[in-house]
Amino acid sequence: MLRTFDIVLIAVMTVTATVTYSIKHRAELKLDEVKRLEAEIKLEKDTIDLLKADWALLTQPNRLEKLITVYAGELKLVPTDSRQIAQEMELPMLKADVPATEAAETDGAKGAKDKATDKIATGSVKP
After folding, report:
1. Rounded CA separation 76/98 (Å)
2. Of 64, 84, 80, 61, whose CA–CA distance to 72 is shortest?
3. In this structure, which long-range contacts are made by residues 8-15, counting pairs with CB atoms below 8 Å and at least 24 apart in sequence?
4. pLDDT tens string for the chain (127 positions)?
5. Which of 35, 37, 34 shows the shortest CA–CA distance to 45?
């Protein structure tokens, strides 16, 4: 009886050790993946910082003024006149903002006009 109990305990210890080892191995793999992702994130952040610095360099007013003078003949750039800037109220209404009844009336009138034009073009309407 004692030998059977010993064999069962040894089997349980072996299974427990195997499960513990597999959990440890998976945790190490996940840790490696986390470290790899952190390295990628750091690389992307460094790239973003580099691109921001490059953008700041490219958009310096002194540099842009020099480019304007060099390419003035080709680009024909002129300063924006203050009268050229439209106010928000001067802009036409977006089609999405037009009430549904007005949109339907407008489309209906346009459709009737198109039908009349088609009849005249095909000769089906007599003058």
Report:
1. 39
2. 64
3. none
4. 679 999 999 999 999 999 999 999 999 999 999 999 999 999 999 999 999 999 999 999 999 999 988 998 898 887 777 777 777 788 888 888 888 775 566 555 555 555 545 544 444 444 4
5. 37
Q: Write the single-letter amino acid at 92.
A: P
CA distances from 81 to 11, 71, 84, 86, 118 (A): 89, 21, 5, 11, 45
Residues in the chain: 127
* 36 contacts 28 by C-beta, under 8 angstroms: no
CB 110 within 8 A of CB 104: no
Give one DSSP letter per residue of the chain, joined into a string.
Answer: -HHHHHHHHHHHHHHHHHHHHHHHHHHHHHHHHHHHHHHHHHHHHHHHHHHHHHHHHHT-HHHHHHHHHHTHHHH---PPPGGGSPPGGGSPPPGGGS-HHHHHHHHHHHHHHHHHHHHHHHT-S--
* Main-chain phi, psi angles of 99, to 5 degrees: -60, 150
Rg (CA), the chain: 38
